[in-house]
Specification:
Layout (H helix, E strand, L loop, with lengths): L36 H4 L6 H6 L29 E3 L26 E2 L15 E6 L8 E3 L2 E8 L2 E7 L6 E8 L17 E3 L2 E5 L4 E6 L5 E6 H4 L14 E3 L2 E5 L6 E7 L5 E6 L10 E5 L2 E8 L9 E5 L6 E6 L14 E2 L4 E6 L4 E7 L5 E7 L10 E3 L2 E6 L7 E6 L5 E5 L3 E3 L8 H5 L4 E3 L5 E5 L2 E5 L4 E8 L2 E9 L11 E3 L2 E6 L10 E6 L3
Parallel strand pairs: 2-30
Antiparallel strand pairs: 1-3, 3-36, 4-5, 5-6, 6-7, 8-9, 9-10, 10-11, 12-13, 13-14, 14-15, 16-17, 17-18, 18-19, 20-21, 21-22, 22-23, 24-25, 25-26, 26-27, 28-29, 30-31, 31-32, 32-33, 34-35, 35-36
Amino acid sequence: MRTAGNPAASGLGRDPRPDRPGRLATPNSRMNRTLPSWLLGLTLSGLPGLLSAQPFVDPAPPAVAEAPAEAATPDPVDVPGLTYHAAPKPLAPEAVTADWPRFLGPTDDAKSPETHLLERFPEGGPAKVWEMEKGNSYTTPVIVGGRLVFFHRLDDEEVIQCLDPETGKQFWSHRYPVEYRDRYGFNNGPRASAVIAEGRVYTLGAASALTCLDLATGARLWQRQLAEEFARLPYFFGHGCAPLVHGGKVIVPLGTSDGLSVAAFDAANGKLVWGTRHTWQAGYASPVVANLRGAERLLVFAGDDSDPPAGGLLAIDPESGELLDAFPWRPDKYESVNGSTPVAVGGDRVFLSASYGKGSVMLRLNESLKWEELWRAEDFGLHWSTALLLDGHLYGFQGRNEPDAWLAALSVETGGEVWRADPEFTVPAPATPGRARRRAEGRDYRMKYFRGSLLHADGRTWALGEFGTLGIFNLSSEGFEEADRTQLFLARATWSLPVLHRGLLYIAQHEPDMAGHPPRLICYDLRR
């Protein structure tokens, strides 16, 4: 099976198995997921009026520390597991660059305005600038103002590291204990990437620890344990949706036993500002704000551990938390989730996609601020990646598992499939001592991109396959062209969208590769 997270970049890579060891021994097991009877009895039509009249009270406002006085910038230092390879090429004076403050980039849509990037890969692939061994996570870095923040887990602690983006050296690190254990055997690290906003860093851990740090120093300003304070309902893969910082608030999809579906906290002090009542729990898609019908609307694609499976798209007023409407869209399988972030398609339309046989749907927010369905595409179900919107078409790798995935293009207007592509290629087996003989015999691997992620920049699309393949695509309504391709490494679970900043590409390798390297965060040079 995603966050993630995402989802997220989340832990949705292989299908969960009901007979995995330890399943029924966990506190989040299926036997404990039943919703309260008063919640199950409510209908969607009655929710906005009945529930919005019952405001939530903050059960435990956090203690807030003063931000440290401005001090001299510390010199970054080496950290264990860091390897520096070589300085990148100089950045072209005319190159356009952009910060990457959130999981899906500066505009929350997997697009970047950066320019002067490679048109083809050099022999052997893009040059490595640096790499760092990382702990458990399904996250990617965020980068603002010369500071890279990476969120992962080392041993029994969730760790937030601030690094120099061009050297990997560390400015500061903050850590706290965590006891989360993935009930399906995926890794136990955070699923949600950090967020940088207004000089602060915000993270949401796998066990629902919401933390705010000072970007300059790493000092903790406040922290909340949301699972304990708000009686969060069970989840499949941990809390996996990246928080959204908007309008001075940190917005977090939640899901509690008393119907707190989405919560907004004051970005400065962590206090609850508003809560949206609904029965749907946090999914693994990141919330986004889009301008629909002339105003900002908060879009939350919810859906996690519930029986019967429930979830869909919530339209919320981001200032007040008022629920405008809820559109059900969730696979009918218990062990399924919603993990693909919604895509606003201009004016009044939003695109949703889910795997497990559900497919995609295009919605319209009508004059009454209610969702209307325009079309469905049952054969286009994205598992965790976000669809790429370009020139009136939607592109993405659909598929629940590796073998049934392919790249396709849909018409925004009709939902019809314009084309589909499933490139296949061979990859040499890694030249490690244990595999040297097999490689010499020519037993290479037949590969595809499988469930890949798409990032658009500099007039072309960068595709990261889930086994470490990086491709340069030219996508249009006329068809698919693979301009170039390289195999960065050969490792499973490469599920997180790449990060682009100042001509450097950052990729998280979440599992050990077949050449013997441990999980790593790797910085590649894409400058030309």
